[in-house]
Structure formats: C-alpha cells, structure tokens
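Support reply, case 0932

Customer input (verbatim):
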Amino acid sequence: MTMINDFTGSLFGLEGKTALVTGGASGLGYMMTKALVGAGAKVYIASRKLDACQQAASSLAGLAGSCIPHAADLSSEAGVVGLAKYIAAEEEALNILVNNSGRSWGAGFQKFPWKAWGEVMTLNVTAPFTLTRELVPLLAAAGNTDDPARVVNIGSIMGTQPHGFPAYSYSASKAAIHHVTGFLSNELAARNITVNAIAPGPFPSNMTAFFSENDKISAAVERGVPLGRMGQPRDMAGLILLLCGAGGAYMTGAIIPLDGGMISARTPGIEQGIDPA
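Our regenerated output:
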C-alpha cells in the first residue's frame, strides 16, 4: 500500500506548490480548491464575498495543505490587477492558476438584455485573460521544462454545443474562453506555462441550483447525459489533480470535456426508422 501511495503521490501530489483559485469558495471552485488543498498545496481563494471565502477556508482546515481567503471583485480591471498585485506581494512564484470565477444570465430570446453581454463576457473572458497576463511573471518563476506552471480555465459543455437553457452570452463566453485557452497555450509554452481548459457538463452549484435542486428538472437534465447523472466533486477533483500534478506536465492547449459523454452524444431520433439488420 505504501508503494501505491508513493507512486500516485508522485503523479498527483502538490506538496510545496502554491495556487490561486478564483471563485474558490463555492461550487466547482470549492471542489477544485478542496482537491488542491487535500493534495498538499497552499491555495489562495478569491471572490467578492470575503465571508464565503473565510468559511470555505475554515472547512478545509486539517487537510494536507492550506487555504487563504481573499476578497476580490474581478468584474473590473482594477479588481483583477489588484488581485495580481496581492499575490505578487505574498509570493515570489505561483505554480497554479485556476480561472474559475464566472457568471451566467438566463432569459428568453426576445427579453435577453444588452447588459447581459458585457457583464458576462467581462467576468468570463476578459478577467481570466487579464489575470493570467498579470500573473505570468510569477507563473514563469515557478515553471521549468519538466514541471511547468499550470493555468486551468473553466469552460463549459455549453461553449462547445448549444445544450440546455438558452443562456446566450454565457455560452458565447465559454466558447470564447476555450479559444483563448488555445491562444495562451501557444503564447506561454516557451515560458514553461501550460494552459488547458475544463469543459464541465452539469454539476450541482449555485449557478445550476435552478435545476439541480429541482427533482423534476434535474431528472430531465440527467436524461440528457449518456452516463445518466450529474457530476460529483470527485469527478472534478480527479481532473484538476491530473492537470496540476506531475502527470499533466505534457498537456497544454486541451479543452477537456467533463460531461458524462454529452460531447459525443448521438443526436436524438437519428436511429428512428433505421432497420439495424
């Protein structure tokens, strides 16, 4: 058993690593934060609500690593730059950046408002691009050829396919962050920084509470997932540890679906009228 633990630890352990997870106090961000702290990392979490960050940090006490809460509003350039300056004042290098903060906006086609575009695109695309750029010096200081620094952007299945509720600007923003991931992976490879994105399907979170907490709607959502269920914290934990641990050092520019098979699901009805014989 000791040999197995040593082996898996060498691939996925994060002792001595420092990370920043935006929006790390709840939902997918908390799932990833808990995994990183559990693997031994020192993790800064940042969101607008300091009390939520403090509660999240307290809940992770006793794990192998540590969690440090910080308040930051990433909906403005000043907030993004301020967060980068805070991390630079605290750390000489940053091994891991998880760009998770984001928002959605749901409304029908005829009522979808103008401001739903600017506000969503700013937080979901402009902020992670700018924060990554501002933190490149710290990321480059942490990375080397064998163990590059890691940037992980959180996209969505809705950035790849028009699934679910017509959240027009959210879907467009996630398609955009997928594309930005590819650009940044090329831009930063020479500085020993990898850039990948996770494209989750349905997971329980504050953003998805309108269906995940409604048995009837969540059942309908699960019927659209080939594996027949929503994502669980361990699903997200396993992937973030792969991307940030030694086992993920040779991966960059990838958009990784974590969606129970939705990305490759067969079009409903195509099999009807076809004689399998």
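We compared this against your earlier run and they match. Two observations from our side: The chain is about 45% helix and 15% strand. The longest strand covers residues 193-200. Please reopen the case if you see a mismatch on your end.
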